[in-house]
Design goal:
Layout lengths: L7 H7 L2 H6 L1 H11 L14 H43 L7 H17 L1 H6 L10 H9 L3 H50 L36
Helix pairs in contact: 3-8, 4-5, 4-8, 5-8, 7-8
Length: 230
């Protein structure tokens, strides 16, 4: 079923550099769905031994690249957990923050939530294309089995490279969002707990005048002395 295309102005906005910098993951989702959709077309290759060997090697290298990206999932999840702990710790200061500081916390939480999409996807199995038993059966029935397997290997390698590009885009977006979230938490920490500039009680609290009596201090007047009228 053909998906309805977005208006030209909306498409230009979703693919613009400012939108990518502001909301990386939504921008990458649209980019992958709109542009990164078709694998590279494999050119016609000679049916020689070296060509068949290199096309089979293309599949092996494409699977290695996918495994490399898949292996980054646990590391990215660990970094996300550290940033999430910092954001949750900052959220405990919600009540003592001015509205501007609360906006910083909301943005940090938003970027953290967006960055969770990629590690949650990478910790699971990543789909890949590889030679199967059915492909071997088809090659066995072909008059040129080596060429049949080489053609399928090249096609599968192109599909894996497409998947590799899409996942790499998501990794880049997640790294950017984690950086945003951590930077916002640091700014909040400087403005609220450290300097107190955006503390909720900063404006309301007034320092005691230097002549004020200490807390708990009471004056004891002699009997019959009227403090008001002397």
């Amino acid at each position: 079923m053909k998906r309805p295309s977005a208006p030209a102005w909306l498409r230009a906005a979703l693919l613009s550099d400012p939108f990518w910098r502001l909301l990386p993951s939504p921008a990458i989702v649209y980019l992958n769905r709109a542009l990164v959709t078709t694998p590279v077309e494999v050119p016609a290759m000679p049916k020689s031994e070296w060509s068949q060997r290199e096309r089979r090697a293309l599949l092996d290298r494409s699977e290695d690249r996918l495994r490399n990206i898949e292996g980054k999932g646990p590391g990215l999840a660990a970094i996300t957990a550290v940033v999430a702990a910092a954001v949750l710790l900052a959220l405990t200061g919600w009540g003592e923050s001015e509205w501007i500081a609360r906006v910083l916390l909301v943005l940090a939480t938003l970027y953290l939530a967006l960055s969770l999409c990629t590690p949650l996807h990478l910790v699971g199995p990543v789909s890949r294309h590889t030679l199967t038993v059915e492909d071997l059966q088809e090659a066995a029935a072909d008059p040129h089995p080596e060429e049949s397997l080489a053609e399928k290997s090249a096609d599968y390698a192109a599909m894996n490279d497409l998947q590799n590009t899409r996942l790499a885009n998501h990794l880049d977006a997640a790294r950017r969002e984690l950086s945003y979230a951590m930077a916002l938490v640091i700014v909040w920490a400087v403005l609220v707990p450290v300097t107190g500039v955006l503390r909720a009680d900063h404006a309301a609290s007034t320092p005691s005048p230097p002549w004020a009596y200490p807390h708990g201090f009471r004056l004891h007047w002699p009997p019959g002395f009227d403090a008001a009228g002397q």
